[in-house]
Automatic annotation (TrEMBL):
One of its GO terms (molecular function) is alkanesulfonate monooxygenase activity. Keywords: Flavoprotein, FMN, Monooxygenase, Oxidoreductase. It comes from the Bacteria. This is Alkanesulfonate monooxygenase SsuD/methylene tetrahydromethanopterin reductase-like flavin-dependent oxidoreductase (Luciferase family). It comes from Nocardia pseudobrasiliensis. The lineage of its organism: Bacteria, Bacillati, Actinomycetota, Actinomycetes, Mycobacteriales. InterPro entries: Luciferase-like_dom (IPR011251), Luciferase-like_sf (IPR036661), SsuD_RutA_monooxygenase (IPR050172). It holds the Pfam family Bac_luciferase. One of its GO terms (biological process) is alkanesulfonate catabolic process.
Amino acid sequence: MRYSVNIPNFGDFADARTVARVAVAAEQAGWDALFVWDHVVHDKQDRRGQPFGDPWMLLTAAALATSRLRLGTLVSPVPRRRPEQLARQVATLEALSGGRVIFGAGLGGPIADEYGSFGETTDPIVLAERLDEALDLLVRYWAGERVDHIGKHYRVEDVTLLPATVQRPRPPIWIGGWWPRRPPFRRAARWDGVAPLFVGAGHGEIPAVEDVRDMLAYVHAHRADRSEPYEVVLGGVTPGDPDRARQLLAPLADAGATWWDERLLMSGDDYYRFAPVLRRIEQGPPTL
């Protein structure tokens, strides 16, 4: 199992210099990756008056300050972005970091706030169609090949975006979704990994092993080639005590988890404050 740190792109972490400090601390403490949220307003009622940072600018600061740490978003709401612009942002970060990007993708949310506030459709079926079509376009853009495309939501005529990504054939794509809603997990089965949230387990709460097994059984049943490596990213907050952390994580690893994403609870404000996040980072990742 590998271990990542998860932070929002608002509050203290709207500042790219603070995110760079987090990244340096995480790398020094032995964590494997840093993941940043991708929101523009999140929940407008709860976030009103808070600053936000652009996740790709925040990750750029993290890349410049580190040499080993993997970097990415969990997750980018692809239908909210233009695929060609997103392809450029990821490829630029890939070049800057030497190929350390992991791309997390999904619909994002809350849909009413993140889409409806800007006059975008809030129809989840349409957004899902845009997500699937855009993911296919991103893969072609990252390959550095000529793209001609006439689809339901996007049109491209004679475009080649260079440079191609450092990682070949592309950065790994992990798909997020809420279990037990099935469609996102059929999508996840087509890509390189799954980063689920679970109804009944809030952000930072460790999911039930039975739910993890059910989710993975469904994903694996829809994978075309089960011989290829596949990442399973679970998250929550673990105690600093190594023995207690092992007791919590060992059953999840046995169920198939390959990454543990450390996330503070959203019940207070620690999760978007630098000091408590830094304290947890400096304790180091849990071990099995």
